[in-house]
Each structure stands twice: as structure tokens, then as C-alpha cells.
């Protein structure tokens, strides 16, 4: 089993990063100076200096938890990242590859030889290997499959067959099972014979001889009851059972709702095939939240901050193209009212306020709706009530904040009518933001699309064009 190292606090991780960057800079500086100097046995001195710095860096890395090394690798430019990666002990490659982000993992895998990748994969459990497998070359996976025992090979195929948003993709095959006709004393003796318990073992799964799940025996129940009692007398039969095809998001909600640490996974017939642990659920929730934030901002996928310019451009240009189109539409809306703006220059200074407030309000609504959809809190019956609520919020915000900016406009430009137009325009644009803030994610969800993808970009475009049209239209009607 891999050695367990204590992970550092966030501030300590950043300190480790600074120390490693300082060591890399020192190494580059000193070796550059030694290289330029003329001295006897120059190559020997240069080699000794290099080995000294390598040993210092290696000792630093050996003391770090794999998750902390992953943090360091993600924060280093690619050349330095690869230099540090070369110093990581071969037996820890697999653990660290699991911890780094997908784009950084791709750069590390591309840098490694196939034999290194096979060796790294062989250090991982089956469920961990399933997480890593999509990024590995085919020839590497063939080597890994050949090296696995038959049972683990089948487990790996099973785990890889599920969609990444399914419970099956989070499945852990490392668990402890017992029968219900034995005493607690027998269970305790059995557990003592194990080298160690699987991580996050808070309950032991009770199965019959055909491996069908009958219930669970919580570890605290095992410890506090009379050892002579039978498992059947104290086990819990009313337990949450998941299937591999269940949605991972729904499983995450169940873990949060019932404060679970582990949950059994059974097939359609009720046969125990694995379990889900809280750490896998937390990783899924974190990754899903990060992906939603990226999608709301118009990014196609997670991006390595030190990726090539071309790779970053490809990741960002889809929604930039959409932005370009919507910005052109907004400019044409303004162009319709050029005569009004020429006659009343104050309109040019005030119209960004209307569009900006509308965009912020729309993004707030979008964020709430996307979150509610992800949690399964919105049904067809509740959608109308939700829309009514958002319209009421928009009206109240429009009256309050529109009234405030209207007063300032009145005082600044000495025009009561301009202040009233400003108040009305802001209120109407907030209503537009509320309507489309609910409508866009709901429509995308109904069409089977991810409601987070580009919603922020779309709502900003609508409130910009709508805000300009409403404000300049009202000003043209009542002021010009």
C-alpha cells in the first residue's frame, strides 16, 4: 500500500511552492555561474553542484503529500513542472496523476514513456485506475490489462463502462463483507487478521452466500455490543442502496442529506458489487462545481494556466465568437438611436448603468436557477411560482435601485423627466433579466443540455441589448 503522508494546510502548501520555486531558481543561477567559470575539473564540479541541488529538491518532494505535489505541479510553468516531475519517485507517479487536474495530467502523461505509465498504473487500485484510464494511451492500457488478475480486470472493465456522471464511475471495490449468522466476536477476530481496513470503513456489509446484500453492521455497533450477539440481531437492514446507473449528483445529495460516509452499490438483482465513499463523492462535487463555474464563464473545459497560447485560444474562442455576435447586435441597437444620443449626450453616459445592473441581476438569477436544477429542486409545478418570485424581486429592486439612480440623475442633469426615464428603464431591464434568467437555464435543461454552459454569456448579451433598447427607446419617446 502507498505510504500515507500528512497533507499540509493551505498556507503551508503555498510555502512549499515558494520553497520549491526558490530551489529551482537557485539551481538555475548557480549552475549557470559554474558553467561560465573556468576551473580545473570543470565538468566534475558542475556535476556535483547539479547533484546537490537535485538531492535537495528530491528530499523536499519526498516529504510532501501527493495532493501537495499536485498543487505544486499545477502552479509551475511547463519546463519547471517537468523538471520537478522527473524528481518524483517512480512509486508515487500514479497517486500524483490522480490528484492533478485533467489538463496538467495530460502534459505529464504525454511526457512519460509507456513503460513508466504502466508501472505507475500498476500501483493503483482498480477504482483509481478507472479514473486515470481515459487519459492513458491504448498501448499502455493493454499492458495494464494484461498485468491485472482476472477479477480486477473485470472490475476495471465494469468501472470504465459507466458514464462519468454515474455512480458506477465512483465505485470502490475494496470493502469488507460478512455473514449474518456469525457472532460479533467472530467478526472482531476476522477484522484483526486483516493488515488494514479499507479507507472510510464506517460499516461492514452483510451478505448471504451468493453475495446479495442483506444489511450493514456499523463499526460503532460492533464495538459497543456484547461479542456473543449474532450479526443478524444488531445489523441494520434499512440502508440506502445505490445502483451503478444512478446519477452521481443524486448520490451526492443523499450523502449530504443523511451524513453518509459509505454506501453500498448493488446490481439490479440486489447483489453487492461495490461501494461509494465520501471522498469520491466530495471529489465529484468539487469537480462538478468547478466545471459549472467554467461553463458559466464560457470556457469549454478546464484549462492549464501554463498551456500553450493556441490551446488556450481554442478553449475560449467558442463563446468569444458568440460574444462578438451579441456585441455587434448591441451596437446596432445603439445605432438605431444615434440621433437621440446626438441631441442628448447624457444618454451615452447613462445607458451602461442600465445594461450593467441588468447583467448583474440576470447572472444572480441564472446562478440560483442552475444550482436549483443541479440539486433537482425545480419541478414543472414549481417553475411558475419561481418565475413569479423572480419577477417580484426584479420589480422591488427596480423601484428601489432605479429610484435611487433616478434621483441622482435628476440632481446631476437637472431633469426630472430624465430621472424618471432612468428609473423606468432600470426596472424594465431588471424584469427582462429575471424572465430570461429563469427561461434560459430551464429551456436548456428541457432540451437535455447543460444549463450552465454559456448561460452567463447569453444573459449578459440579452440585458445589454435589451437595456440599450429600453433606455434609448424611452428617452426618444419622452425626451427627444
What does this structure look like?
There is one protein chain. This protein is mostly helical and 480 residues long. The chain has three domains: 10-164, MgtE N-terminal fold, CATH 1.25.60.10; 177-277, CBS-domain, CATH 3.10.580.10; 309-478, Tetracycline Repressor, domain 2. 67% of the residues lie in helices and 5% in strands. It has helices at 10-36, 42-62, 66-74, 78-87, 93-99, 102-111, 114-121, 126-132, 138-147, 150-160, 184-193, 219-224, 231-234, 248-258, 278-296, 309-335, 338-343, 346-374, 380-413, 416-446, 455-478, and strands at 177-178, 203-207, 213-218, 262-266, 272-277. The strands form two sheets. It has a three-stranded mixed β-sheet. It has a two-stranded antiparallel ribbon with strand order 4-5. A hairpin with a 5-residue loop joins strand 2 and strand 3 (213-218). The longest helix is centred in the last third of the chain and has 34 residues, at 380-413.
